[in-house]
Design goal:
This protein is mostly helical. Among the domains are: 46 residues, no CATH class; 66 residues, no CATH class. The chain has five helices and two strands. Pfam families: Ribosomal_L32e.
């Protein structure tokens, strides 16, 4: 609850609004802020292919869905890999093993349903980030986000279904 009092204090609000380089010149000390966990991954994440492979003739016929099916016809231009036709998926489109399954924020995703599962990430907070499952209630979401902040675990969808209330 100490944090709530500091936020309401006007001197703290003024100190936080001043840019760092100016606050050092003026001798204003900013209140310490707790840093979030920094991901261990330093390698740049490159996805070889982002677009999905579409099923041949899915644009021509409504009955043929877009999800990929391997063409097996004897005359299929796609199966025979003619120039200018739909590309077929193969092993060469795979992402780098070291960056595979990483999110753009540099963490791997770990789906969490309750507070106890957040505590599993305590020792792995620089590799994994918690993602709250879609069927978790708002009350439990608040508990999960609070516990994750205590354990310094990043929550990728921590703002979901949580509405901030302003007291006026």
């Amino acid at each position: 609850m100490v944090l709530d009092r500091r936020v309401n204090d006007p001197t703290v609000r003024i100190a936080e609004s001043i840019p760092t380089h100016l606050s050092e010149l003026c001798g204003i000390v900013k209140p310490p802020t707790r840093a979030m966990a920094v991901p261990l991954l330093t390698k740049k994440i490159i996805k070889k292919r982002v677009k999905k492979f579409k099923r041949p003739h899915s644009d021509r016929y409504h009955r043929v869905g877009e999800s990929w099916r391997r063409p097996k016809g004897i005359d299929s231009r796609v199966r025979r890999k003619f120039k200018g036709v739909t590309l077929m998926p193969n092993i060469g489109y795979g992402s780098d093993k070291k960056t595979c399954h990483y999110l753009p924020n540099g963490f791997k995703k770990f789906v969490v349903h309750n507070v106890k599962e957040v505590e599993l990430l305590m020792m792995h907070n620089r590799t994994y980030c918690a993602e709250i499952a879609h069927n978790v209630s708002t009350r439990k979401r608040k508990e999960i986000v609070e516990r994750a902040a205590q354990l310094d675990v990043v929550v990728s969808n921590g703002q979901g279904r949580l509405r901030s209330q302003e007291d006026e």
